[in-house]
TrEMBL record:
PANTHER family found in the cross-reference section: DIAMINOPIMELATE EPIMERASE, DIAMINOPIMELATE EPIMERASE, CHLOROPLASTIC
Enzyme class: isomerase
Organismal lineage: Bacteria, Bacillati, Bacillota, Bacilli, Bacillales
Major localisation: cytoplasm
Active site: C69, C221
Catalysed transformations (reactions): (2S,6S)-2,6-diaminopimelate = meso-2,6-diaminopimelate
Keyword Signal: no
Stored Gene3D superfamilies: Diaminopimelate Epimerase, Chain A, domain 1 (3.10.310.10)
Name the UniProt record assigns to this protein: Diaminopimelate epimerase
Subunit structure of this chain's protein: Homodimer.
Highest taxon of the lineage: Bacteria
Metabolic or biological pathway: Amino-acid biosynthesis; L-lysine biosynthesis via DAP pathway; DL-2,6-diaminopimelate from LL-2,6-diaminopimelate: step 1/1
Keyword Cytoplasm recorded: yes
GO molecular function: diaminopimelate epimerase activity
């Protein structure tokens, strides 16, 4: 079977996007694509939905399925809006139907999309995380990791563990890697694994680096950046409202609003098309070959944008 794929990224968190009916072989397809293209972090499947403009499913590099992907949803939002000639839509995801919207194109020609990040839960059972008889863990050191770093466990709805660290600690990610690898193998705390982020104050905003479940370190993780913006507001590091979030792959804006006892979160950033590919796929054997690539010229524009934020990101990477 010949598949038509689009290579896309949000903040250099890179995916192959496929529009197709849902099929059990898509997890294996994700593994095979990421094996052949080491720059890819996973597969975004755009499938028909009974109740929304489309359904997004997300497969990590190791083939595991995630309930949500913020950077991926921006790319799916662009794909669906351009396909249907619309400027906003609702996209079905594993746990919620989410509103997405086209934003003004940046002056250097970068397509921008805003996506809702929801639902938000601090209940440990929603990650899941097991730690004694605690039901939440917000801005407190986890004694088995460090006596100094305040950690927060939050589901948006995929699971995140976020530590607020001094900027100097971002230069060497070995501490973060050690714990993230432990929590994403057999362990007593996170039965389904967890995305582990370290966040620090950066300029007027924050910088976030994430070790993703099912992938490893990525250039950026949209749900992690939005959850980190929320945690940074709770910690008083930045004010509520729009938070600039720098990452190894660029910069996004995360809006954090408090409504009664709950939070409304939104993630705005680039949705870049890198190239078009054909993939010759033997569903039976799980083997395939990335056959051809047409570069789409958008990546050069994005690289100029990265240069503009490099004065801040270079302090951390
Ligand atoms: N990169 C994504 C998150 C992808 C899923 C994550 N690895 C998980 O397993 O929860 C993002 O941009 O949010």
């Amino acid at each position: 079977m010949e598949l038509e794929l689009l290579k896309v990224h949000g903040s250099m968190n890179t995916f192959y996007l496929l529009e197709a009916e849902e099929h059990e072989s898509h997890s294996r397809l994700a593994v095979e694509l990421c094996r052949q293209d080491g720059s890819a972090d996973g597969l975004l499947l755009v499938a028909p939905s009974q109740r929304a403009a489309a359904k997004m499913r997300v497969f990590n590099r190791d083939g595991s399925e995630a309930s949500m992907c913020g950077n991926g949803l921006r790319c799916v939002a662009r794909y669906v809006c351009e396909r249907d000639g619309i400027e906003e839509a609702v996209i079905e995801t594993m746990k919620a139907d989410l509103h997405v919207k086209k934003e003004p194109v940046l002056e250097d020609g970068i397509e921008m999309y805003a996506v809702e990040i929801s639902p938000v839960s601090f209940r440990l059972e929603d990650l899941p995380m097991a730690y004694g008889n605690h039901s939440e863990w917000i801005l407190k050191p986890l004694p088995f990791i460090s006596a100094e770093i305040p950690f927060t466990a939050v589901a948006v709805p995929n699971p995140h563990l976020i530590g607020i660290v001094p900027a100097v600690m971002q230069k060497d990610s070995s501490h973060q890697k050690e714990w993230a690898e432990l929590f994403n193998g057999p362990n007593e705390y996170f039965a389904d694994g967890v995305n582990v982020s370290y966040a620090s104050k950066a300029g007027e905003g924050i910088f976030v680096r994430t070790f993703e479940r099912g992938v490893g370190f990525t250039n950026a993780c949209g749900t992690a950046m939005t959850a980190s913006a929320l945690v940074s507001c709770l910690a008083g590091i930045v004010p509520y409202g729009e938070v600039a979030v720098y990452n190894p792959g660029g910069m996004v804006k995360c809006s954090v609003l408090q409504k009664g006892g709950s939070f409304e979160l939104r993630l705005t950033g680039n949705a870049t098309y890198v190239s078009r590919h054909r993939f010759l796929w033997e569903e039976g054997t799980g083997e395939g070959r990335l056959a051809a690539s047409d570069e789409l010229g958008e990546q050069a524009l994005y690289e100029k944008f990265i240069e503009q934020v490099s004065a801040i990101t270079h302090q951390f990477v």
